[in-house]
C-alpha cells in the first residue's frame, strides 16, 4: 500500500488491464464547512479523466452509504481566484452585454489531469472503511467500468469529433458575438463618465474605452503619448477625422487645462536620436556642415592671401 504526503494510493483497473492510481485521505479543514463535513468527507485526487458521480459512487459504496459527491475539474478552476467579479450597474444604465459564443467544449467533457473530488459519507464509520479500501484493492484493483446509457461520456474519436465541431461555430453565432462586442465598445467610448464611475466602484475588469492618455500635442495637431509617440486615431476615407467622438485617445483634464494656459506647449516634443537612422542622419548632417564650413574658411584664407600686397617702408635720411 503506497503512501505519499498523507495520501494513500487507491488503484483501479480498466477492462484492458490498465491500472490507474487515485490518492485518498480524510478531508481536513480549519473551517467548519457544512458542505464538506470533516468527520465524513474523503478527499480524492488524480481521479480518472472519464470520472462521473456514478463511477465514484460505485467504487465507494463498497465502504458504506455515500451522501454526495463533488467533482472538481482543474480545467474549470484556472484563474477563478485571480479576478473579482465587478459590480453590476443598474438596469438600463450600463453598456449592452456581449453575446457569448457557444460552448467550445462538449458538455460532458473529460476531466483534466490531476482533477479531484470530495466524497461525503452518511456516517463516520463509512469514512473509516473507505480509508481501508486501498489495502483491500492492493492485489486486485477495483474494475473501473465506463458509464453507459444516458451517463455515457464521449471518449476517444467521438469526443475529438465533437470538440472539433464545437470549435467551429456557425457564422450567425460569430456575427452576433462580434456585433454585440462592437456595440459594447462603442457605447463605452461614448460614455466615458460611466467608465470613471466603474473605476470608482473598484471595477478593474472593464478596460474597453480607456485608451492611451495623451501627454502632449504635435505641431500638426496629432496627439502624443508620454514617450513622444503619435497616438493612432480613427481615420476616414481621406485621412484622420477631426471629430472628438472618433478618437481612440483620451486627453486628461489636467493636460487640457495646461494647454489652455500654455499654448506654446502644443509644439512637437518628439524624441530625438531615438532610432538608429535618426542618429546616423544627424551625424551625416554634422559632417556635411563641418565640411562646408571648412571649404568656406579655405576660400576666405585664399582671398586674404590674394589681397595681401607687400608695401615697403621707405626711410628718408636728412642730409647734413
Characteristic terms for this protein:
elongated, Alpha-Beta Plaits, seven-stranded mixed β-sheet, alpha+beta, 320 residues, 9 helices, nucleic acid binding, single chain, 16% strand, two-stranded parallel sheet
Explain what this protein looks like in three dimensions.
The protein has 320 residues and is of the alpha+beta class. It has a domain at 3-81 and 92-166: Alpha-Beta Plaits, CATH 3.30.70. Helices cover 33% and strands 16% of the residues. The protein is built from 9 helices and 13 strands. Residues 78-87 and 236-249 have low confidence and may be disordered. GO terms for molecular function: nucleic acid binding. Residues 80-111 are annotated as: Disordered. Pfam families: RRM_Rrp7, RRP7. Belongs to the RRP7 family. Residues 221-312 form the Ribosomal RNA-processing protein 7 C-terminal domain.
Amino acid at each position: 500500500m503506497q503512501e505519499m504526503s498523507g495520501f494513500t494510493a487507491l488503484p483501479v483497473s480498466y477492462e484492458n488491464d490498465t491500472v490507474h492510481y487515485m490518492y485518498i485521505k480524510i478531508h481536513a479543514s480549519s473551517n467548519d464547512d457544512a458542505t464538506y463535513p470533516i468527520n465524513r468527507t474523503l478527499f480524492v485526487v488524480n481521479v480518472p479523466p472519464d470520472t462521473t458521480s456514478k463511477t465514484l459512487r460505485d467504487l465507494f459504496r463498497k465502504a458504506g452509504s455515500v451522501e454526495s459527491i463533488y467533482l472538481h475539474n482543474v480545467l474549470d478552476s484556472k484563474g477563478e481566484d485571480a479576478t473579482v467579479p465587478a459590480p453590476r450597474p443598474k438596469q438600463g444604465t450600463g453598456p449592452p452585454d456581449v453575446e457569448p459564443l457557444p460552448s467550445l467544449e462538449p458538455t460532458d467533457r473529460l476531466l483534466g489531469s490531476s482533477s479531484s473530488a470530495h466524497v461525503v459519507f452518511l456516517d463516520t464509520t463509512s469514512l473509516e472503511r473507505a480509508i481501508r479500501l486501498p489495502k483491500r484493492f492492493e492485489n486486485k484493483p477495483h474494475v473501473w467500468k465506463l458509464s453507459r446509457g444516458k451517463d455515457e461520456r464521449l471518449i476517444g474519436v467521438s469526443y475529438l469529433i465533437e470538440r472539433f465541431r464545437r470549435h467551429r461555430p456557425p457564422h450567425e453565432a460569430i456575427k452576433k458575438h462580434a456585433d454585440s462586442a462592437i456595440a459594447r465598445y462603442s457605447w463605452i467610448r461614448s460614455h466615458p463618465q460611466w467608465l470613471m464611475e466603474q473605476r470608482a466602484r473598484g471595477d478593474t475588469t472593464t478596460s474597453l474605452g480607456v485608451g492611451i492618455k495623451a501627454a502632449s500635442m504635435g505641431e500638426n495637431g496629432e496627439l502624443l503619448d508620454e514617450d513622444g509617440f503619435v497616438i493612432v486615431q480613427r481615420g476616414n476615407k481621406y485621412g484622420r477625422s477631426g471629430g472628438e467622438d472618433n478618437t481612440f485617445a483620451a486627453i486628461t483634464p489636467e493636460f487640457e487645462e495646461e494647454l489652455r494656459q500654455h499654448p506654446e506647449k502644443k509644439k512637437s516634443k518628439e524624441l530625438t536620436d531615438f532610432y538608429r537612422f535618426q542618429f546616423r542622419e544627424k551625424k551625416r548632417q554634422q559632417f556635411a556642415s563641418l565640411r562646408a564650413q571648412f571649404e568656406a574658411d579655405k576660400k576666405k584664407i585664399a582671398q586674404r592671401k590674394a589681397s595681401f600686397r607687400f608695401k615697403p617702408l621707405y626711410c628718408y635720411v636728412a642730409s647734413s
